[in-house]
Amino acid sequence: MKKTSGNIETMTKKCGFVSIIGNTNAGKSTLLNYLIGEKVSIVSPKIQTTRQEIRGIVEYGQSQLIFVDTPGFCPSKTALERVLLSNFRRAYKNSDVTLVLIDCTKKNWEKDIDFVSHEKKLNRPFAVALNKVDLLKDKKKLLTIADKLRTYHFIDEIFFISAIKGTGIEPLRQYLADVVPESPWLYFEDHDKTDQSLSSRLSEITRETIFEYLDQELPYSIYIRTDKLTVTDKRIKVMHSIVVMRDTQKAIVLGHKGSTIRAIRLATISKMRKIFNKNIELKLFVIVRDKWTERKEHLIDAGLI
Ligand SMILES: Nc1nc2c(ncn2[C@@H]2O[C@H](COP(=O)(O)OP(=O)(O)OP(=O)(O)O)[C@@H](O)[C@H]2O)c(=O)[nH]1
Ligand SMILES: [Mg+2]
After folding, report:
1. Taking 80 as the threshold, does the pLDDT of residue 294 lie above it?
2. Is 166 near ligand 1, meaning CB less than 6 Å away?
3. What are the residues whose beta carbons fall under 8 Å from the beta carbon of 277, sequence distance 6 or more?
4. Are the CB atoms for 85 and 74 separated by under 8 Å?
5. Domains in the chain, start-ordered, CATH in brackets?
6. Which residue has the higher pLDDT, 194 or 115?
7. Which end of the chain has fewer CB atoms surrounding its CB within 10 Å, N or C?
C-alpha cells in the first residue's frame, strides 16, 4: 500500500519467470547480462555455449522479473545434447512468459519458430525479439521478418533489439513487467543478481575462457569440475579440473610447455577479479575421462543434471 496525496493507492506487486529461448548463438546470454546489469551468464561467438538454465533477477517498477537463460536449440544425438534440450524444455515449461530471441541476420530464422511451434503449446504471453539489429544494414528486412512473424497466431508482441548495445530494450522490459502475473516477489529486495552458486559461476568463467582459447570441437569436449573452493572477504581460492575426452585433447589444452593453460589461467583470473572484486588464486589441472558426454555420472559431475 502506498499513500498518495490523501488517497490510498494499492500498488500491486507482480512477479514471474521469463524464459529466454532461441537458437544457439542468438544472443540469449548477452541479453540476460544486459537486462541484469552484470555478467551472470557466459557468452561466446561459438555455438552451444550455455548448458544449463541460468537465472537473473531484477526489479522493474512493481514487477520482479526472473529471467531464465537456456541452452540454445540443438539436435539430440549425444547424451549431452539430450541434457541440453531437457534443460531448455524445463525452463520453457516452468516459465510465466516466453521470450524467443532470433538473430535477425540469419536467413533461416523461420526454423527457430518452427522449432518452438513443435514444443507443447503453453497458454502464456509469448514475445519475439529480433536481436542483432546493429548488424543489419538494410533495416527494411526487419519489417519483412516482422510481417511474417505476425502470421503466427501464438506470437503476441515483436521487438527489435540489440542485446550488445542495449538498443530497444526499454519497451521490451516494460512489456515483460506488464505481462508477468500478479504475485508477491519471490526474492527479497536485497537478493543477489543470480541464484547460481559461486562454485558454478567460477567454473562457467573458466569454461568461457576455454571457448576463447580453444578451437573446433574442443570446447564441446570439456567440462569443469570444482575440486576445492575457499572464500574469504578478500580472496577466492579455487581449484578446477578441466575434463577432456582424449590424451590428444589434454596435450592441446596444456599447449607447448604449458603455454596454453597458463594463458587460460591468467585470462580467467582477470575476469574473476573483475566480476567478484577479490583477489583470485586459481589452479587448473587437466584430466581425461573417455566419452564423458555419453555418461550420466559425468553429466552429473558437470552439474548438468
Ligand atoms: N553484433 C551483435 N552481436 C551480438 C548481439 N547479441 C549477441 N551478440 C554476439 O553473438 C554471440 C553469441 O552470443 P551469446 O549470448 O553467447 O548467444 P546465446 O544465444 O546465449 O548462445 P548459446 O548459449 O550457444 O545458445 C556472441 O559473440 C555475442 O557477442 C547483438 O545484439 N549484436
Ligand atoms: Mg548462451
Report:
1. yes
2. no
3. none
4. yes
5. 2-179 (3.40.50.300), 198-301 (3.30.300.20)
6. 194
7. N
